[in-house]
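This part of the workshop introduces the protein records we will be handling. A record pairs a protein's sequence with a compact description of its fold. Backbone structure tokens are a discrete shorthand for how the chain folds in space. The question running through the whole workshop is how a given chain folds. The record below serves as our worked example for the rest of this section.
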Amino acid sequence: MTTGPVPKPTPETLPFWESTKARAMTIQHCLDCGAAIFYPRSYCPKCLSTDLEWRPVSGRATLASYVINRRPLPVFEVEQQIIALVNLEEGVRMMTNLVDVEPTPAALRLGMELELTYDERGDQVLPVFRPAQKETE
């Protein structure tokens, strides 16, 4: 559990936050054009359809970009944090934090495989990512 600002769900984002609380993150998909959608909204940004549904994500992603924040706001009560853009396997990009990895450029390779995990914050649960654990044969 980390400290920091707690997200306040809106009617459009409530299903997303409920899914992260259940540790089974979902994102929207358009039933008309098939687009995966993130961030949550009331219509598809590709075709403007309002016919959307929530589907679970695989939990797999790759690192698109990052910054090592060595001076986070005091409310976070951490010395540094990794703020990242990750590409979900479903085809959308989201901003998140990386955990369980050294905050050094040598440890953070663009394109590296990541896996979803969760971080409790107040009464919410945030999706965060860590380096993917390779299965041993």
